[in-house]
């Protein structure tokens, strides 16, 4: 992964280890999946469910559902453990990277890391958390650590190490001032005393491979097939053989055992009291009153009467590319690529694609239990038949090709229509799943549908273009002979041409269909190093066009601009880097960084995603960094954002990653020569509550701004060119203005439109 080299261009937020700043705000929201419920707790009629990327709360009496994620309070994604104490109202969230969030009525505190044993280099994933009073025992790959919830500090740790070999604590609990830990070699115990950290002083109560444990009035633990009740040094098995126990939950008066899709209830003495099934696999379950609630793998929270409760979201979090459709609809492809965009990132969950119909997320039943391996890099609505959809299956396995699906709005489901295999040129050759793998779609201005193909031909050394012949209901392939690249990226149609990054050679392809349905007269233009692409690049990755007609081309080692691209592409043009000055030295913007995506907003500013470097928000020219978002200072799940889209009607920005999607409400909607809906916020500006800049949005493409006090004296003037403006509340002498009412007087470039606003300042 290429890392960003000129970090000084970014706006980096300070990041503390504890009591970290709130990295979320009301501008952020998540589009996470809340289907895979990992842990459940109940507090006075409210069920708290922990999922992969967030927590949701379901109030049984009212049906209300709310959620908590990195977009509104948490500090990470990839939750791996959770527990909550209803008496103290404190919860503890553990993540795969070893960090923790303490959730209390006073707020959320971030604990950046767990204690690590000397010489331990394995996973820091939090395996399990169990809270007893104000203490929690945290299970990790090296053993257990005690965490004080009031002080938010770690106490003693016991490193389960013998002869240099570390043993994981799968789960642990505290009962009667003793820690009980289940490991792959047995049930281990130790009093919370001075010798607790010394592993040689721990006792093995029962040998075996145990994975689950919990305690309240009693203690129960389990292997995959047997559950035991522990009492005064005696482990008594429950008289039931299980198939594959995934969780044991001990409540005040019952023991709940989750065994795949069946949930068993026992008294605290082991007397069987019933079982239920919800028809699908569950990670965990608990009993609230007389009803069982299950944390399912794929459906969220499910009651024993098969009612489902969860926040709406995609089926899985895995995401790669997104398309914004009309009527607030979304299409999300879930595939992935790695190693110079060659290797398919096959996913064992076979995620397919996700569709948001404007009011709810839809997942096709076609993907449920389907044995075909899917790696969907793109999905598009047919511009002619809008209830039909095409997707590319890029996998180098049986079933790769282009698929047609039909959406049934009544059943809210997609039906399989046809697969187009895109076989090689010579039908006498055996089918090679590595060849003719479709990547992404684009439609021209006549609604003709095209797709790019990688590893095309009989030997896989070419890229190709395929055209959808509606009359024949088939895809026709144009093999681009003479080109050195066998890779291809998603194409972009702009000004009668298809612009296609080539990720495996240092080239960029422009494809001209001559606006005819015949492939025989099509021509190509190829850009390479002689045109200014960086010599050390492994290929081009992304393409975007701004409002000036300039092409922004992202490659594996930087960014290049082709001014006036449509006119200049015919003239053997030279693409140019953006050069900025840093400490008196000229620096190339994003040099040696892989530019995954470029997106242009309504004010002609650019959002640029850098592999491993987060997202930069640049001025129209690219010479100024307005904002920088990373996973450390924002709700981004990861610093590699695979796609960015801006809804120009609303200014909302979609950030897509392999770990889920988040949105950011930008300040720039579609900017024209006239004013839109002018809005000032925050307003009033109370210094004790807000110390940032005041934003004025809804401006014209070029806006002349004068800000006056109540007496009409001009205190600030400026020209805004991006659809919005930020005032630092300083006057023309650089000093903060006094408390009072200030008037904002605005005109567009030719003074044909004007707008006014008032700002109240309280110092």
From TrEMBL:
Keywords: Signal. Residues 49-202 form the PorZ N-terminal beta-propeller domain. Gene3D superfamilies: 2.60.40.4070, YVTN repeat-like/Quinoprotein amine dehydrogenase. Residues 1-19 form the signal peptide. The keyword Cytoplasm does not apply. This is PorZ N-terminal beta-propeller domain-containing protein.
